[in-house]
Write a structure and sequence with these properties.
Blueprint: H1 7-18, H2 22-29, H3 33-41, H4 48-57, H5 66-75, H6 81-93, H7 97-107, H8 114-126, H9 130-143, H10 150-163, H11 168-179, H12 189-203, H13 207-228, H14 234-239, H15 247-264, H16 268-279, H17 289-312, H18 319-328, H19 334-351, H20 356-360, H21 363-367, H22 378-401, H23 405-422, H24 425-437, H25 444-465
Length: about 475
């Protein structure tokens, strides 16, 4: 049987090799002789801070003995959260994720530790140590999977938000798993959860799911808004402070989402109905600065989207009015400009419009399409990258059909790269089809670049499937 070594034995051997006394080593490590003696003799357990001091004094890498620490002081001892908690935080600092998994696996049989592990996960999340927090949330969720607790639902919400990334196929899986837990969240927390789910489904172009999430969010937000403004509703008002935006915004955002769904499905009359709904804000009771900011945004979005709705439905006479509105809106945020450019290019390709002069006004936005905006907001994180990829394709389609092949192929390759990053097969295949259509106009360097990209994507997919060896 293999005998697990101990940190105490390792330290004792080091002292002999270096011919150091306990006092001499204590001076090097910044520890008193008594503490070193107690550790060497085995009369005292060790904290992670002491372990770090000993490791540094032995000129070893940070975290060198963490696996042994788990064996000696966590697995072989009754779990002690006063020792485990600082150890988990230190593992997170050093990105020792496997060590965190071992600790979680060793102590999760005892349900008494679940509340503390959840608290640690929340603190790690606040520190931005997402991967470490994810391991703890998954551990807590697994331990409580048969419980219908709010904590389980919160864990699943945290897991969902951490897991959402570039790969749209993985995002769909994460959204599907989390969706069943929404109803277990606190009534107020459900609003942000539904908003986030709606935006993920929006980036996936799952319009039936976007509509479903929007309907639920509006119904729940209306109830919470009515409760907030009832007499003696101080507790309700305080609970709404947990939200990421004013409570009334969830009602108007639901209308905006449903307008977007109608527009994507070609129901421009329905889109106009919902756009008019979120432009009418007479019912909003809040008058603070934050509320006024959001009201201004919705009035701006409604005017812009009414024009975009008309343009996309075939009323090309509003194109210049739409452009002038965009130009007059000097405070338009970058996210809106990308959406507006996409609307213009979609209409230009759909109705064969010449927008060469208009494109000059969007040079900055076109140049920045490849940039990824950093944000915790699910719209910016998920919907905008999807819009950017689609906008790149529409630009390529426009330029190639207007004989501007150099610009067309450049945008096409950028769109293909984005589609591959998003793991969006539809976008990628559409880009390939567009290249094949105009392949005769491509110079040899362009063709080589195209085939190299296809091979790179193919090899990447082969590697994911585990068949890389067969390609050699």
């Amino acid at each position: 049987m293999k005998i697990t070594p101990t940190i105490r034995a390792e330290l004792e051997q080091f002292l002999q090799q270096e011919d150091l006394t306990l006092s001499q080593f204590g001076q090097i490590a910044g520890m008193n002789r008594g503490a070193v003696s107690a550790i060497v003799s085995g009369n005292k357990s060790m904290s992670v801070k002491q372990l770090d001091l000993i490791t540094e004094a032995m000129s070893l890498p940070e975290g060198y003995y963490y696996d042994l620490f788990i064996e000696n002081f966590i697995i072989d001892h009754p779990p002690n959260m006063r020792r485990i908690e600082p150890f988990l935080f230190r593992c997170a600092e050093l990105d020792k994720l496997d060590a965190i998994r071992r600790v979680v696996g060793a102590i999760m049989d005892n349900l008494l530790y679940i509340p503390k592990l959840f608290e640690i996960a929340e603190e790690l999340l606040a520190q931005g140590r997402l991967e470490a927090a994810l391991i703890l949330y998954e551990g807590v969720a697994e331990a409580e999977k048969y419980q219908h607790s709010e904590r389980l639902a919160v864990c699943q919400y945290r897991i969902f938000k951490i897991q959402i990334g570039d790969d749209q196929s993985k995002n769909l899986s994460a959204a599907t798993i989390f969706e069943v837990f929404v109803e277990r969240l606190d009534e107020i927390d459900q609003l942000d959860a539904l908003k986030d789910l709606a935006n993920v489904y929006r980036s996936l172009r799952k319009w039936d799911k976007v509509d479903e999430m929007a309907r639920q969010m509006r119904a729940k937000a209306e109830i919470q808004y009515a409760l907030k403004h009832q007499q003696n509703s101080r507790a309700q008002s305080e609970s709404s402070y947990k939200l990421s935006r004013p409570l009334f915004v969830y009602i108007t955002y639901a209308d905006l989402l449903r307008a977007n769904v109608c527009e994507e499905l070609g129901d421009y009359e329905g889109a106009l109905h919902y756009t008019n709904a979120y432009s009418n804000l007479d019912w909003v009771r809040e008058t603070d600065e934050d509320a006024l900011h959001w009201m201004k945004l919705y009035l701006h979005w409604s005017k812009a989207n009414i024009l975009a709705n008309k343009l996309l439905s075939g009323d090309v006479s509003v194109l210049h009015e739409y452009i002038n509105f965009i130009d007059d809106s000097s405070d338009t945020i970058q996210e809106d400009r990308v959406t507006q450019l996409l609307n213009i290019m979609t209409a230009a390709n759909r109705y064969k419009l010449d927008v060469n002069d208009i494109l000059k006004r969007f040079e900055t936005e076109i140049a920045s399409l490849s940039q990824r905006l950093s944000s915790d907001d699910m719209y910016t994180q998920q919907v905008l990258p999807d819009y950017s990829a689609l906008c790149g394709y529409e630009l390529a389609y426009y330029y190639l059909n207007h004989g501007m092949h150099y610009d067309g192929f450049n945008h096409l390759f950028c769109a293909m790269v984005k589609a591959h990053i998003l793991n969006n097969e539809t976008y990628f295949i559409n880009c390939m089809g567009l290249f094949v259509r105009f392949k005769a106009h491509a110079v040899s360097e362009t063709k080589t670049e195209f085939y190299n990209l296809i091979e790179k994507v193919w090899l990447n997919n082969v590697e994911k499937s585990g068949n890389a060896d067969r390609c050699e």
